[in-house]
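I have been asked to look over a protein record a colleague put together. The record follows directly below this note.
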Amino acid sequence: MVLGLLAVVQSRAQSEVGTLTLMPKIGGNWATMTASDIYYGVETDEKASAKSKLGFTGGIEAEYQLRSNFSLSAGVMYAHQGMAYEYVPEVWKDFKVSLDYLNIPVMAHLYVAPHLAIQMGVQPGFLLRGRHSGEVYDYRADGTLGWQSFSGDDNYHRTFDIGIPFGLSYDIDHFRIECRYCLGLYDTTKYQMKERNRSLQLTLGYRFML
């Protein structure tokens, strides 16, 4: 009985040829950027290291089943990206760059096994808002040294980005579990600091037949 029920569920997981589905999805986004040229040593070449930061991602995608093992999709996804910097004693701490993107992934899906697909495509992205925050170790108004908080809008990053996303998906009935990694191709800053977006997304979606 269990095997029979599983067979029924799995038989409904993959769309039929010629069908169009709409899939809202939400998940987490682990984002970072390639090492930035930010040096903090006065007489040395000590360089800050970027770390990943966790953010929200969500949106909707439409998928058309061209063949039994091949489909194309396009979507609109919000993603909270950016990076965090490692703690540097008596320099800065909790330094974060937060970048909110509207991404448009256009993907090809190749089913290599029942309900399991590999994906690859292209993803233009548009920066909605950028902010930075943290604490810097500097002279205060009273002349003493100490930690001072800072935050504000980020005007250092370009408004357009493009990347190559690739990953895997698995369909269970109308649900889809998806993991994608996106490799940014452009330097995102306006000042040639060699920062490129990197992000790993894990999402859960639900497909509606149209």
